[in-house]
Amino acid sequence: MASSNDIQAAGTDCLNWNCGDASASLRQLLEYVETEALKAIGWYLGHKRTKSRYSRWIQFLAVTLTAAAGIAPLAQPILKIPLSPFWPTLLVGLAAALLGLDKAFGFSSGWARYVMAAANIQKSLEEFRMDWAVMIAKACPAPSADQLEALLQRAKEFRVNVQGIVIQETKDWVTEFQSNLSQMEKDVSAQLATLKAQAEKAAQDKAAAKALGSIKLTVPNAASTDGAKIQVTLGDGAGTVADESVTGSQTWARLNLAAGQYQIAVSATAGGKPVSATAPVIVKPGEIAAVQISLPI
Fold it and tell me: pLDDT digits over 21-42, tens only?
């Protein structure tokens, strides 16, 4: 069953031909083809109102949001209103979402298609009316068999032309719908791929953070050195990882070290004489290796 929102053709009763009254049959035929054309025009003009309303509001809001995004950073120092730097991005994002909504549901494009279809049918109707008037005038007072055939053929051409316009508009809608659906699927797939990549990177970063360890060194007699100053050198099999001096403190720490075996060397001067001590240390993922080294003082 056809929906009440569809363009429905009239029944076939109006196409019955009365051989005894050709003039009446022609009037009935004329009324039929004109009514069907006017019905199609009315359908398109009626349904374009909703699409035009949504399209105008979406375009208005998109322009307003985009303008607000550009004006906001300039107006902030003048009006002295605290504004997050993310607001312009949010406003532009909302404007883009509205335009995407318009494209997905075809409000603007549908509005244009409906207006063009109604205009084309109206043009075809006016041409048919003028041709029909000329042909009827030539057929007075009574049309011949050839004239009747020409009138019937012209009515047929007009009716088929109207249906052709409706079918072409429907094809355009189907093409646009399929294109938008395909593009939407691509966009969703791209966003999912991006989110997946971000999630994988976050998991990798988290795993990498857990794979790192730290070292905390304590030198209990560091205050007994000259100037309470010590030199800490941390090395692994590849070379020196850190070489730092510490003054006025007996502790030293190193964060975010790759798991593995290291060697710590502590050197200083005490009473003008150099002193040093070393110790191995094993760094484990996610743990703090506590090391205590006392200098031979």
Answer: 888 899 999 999 999 999 999 9
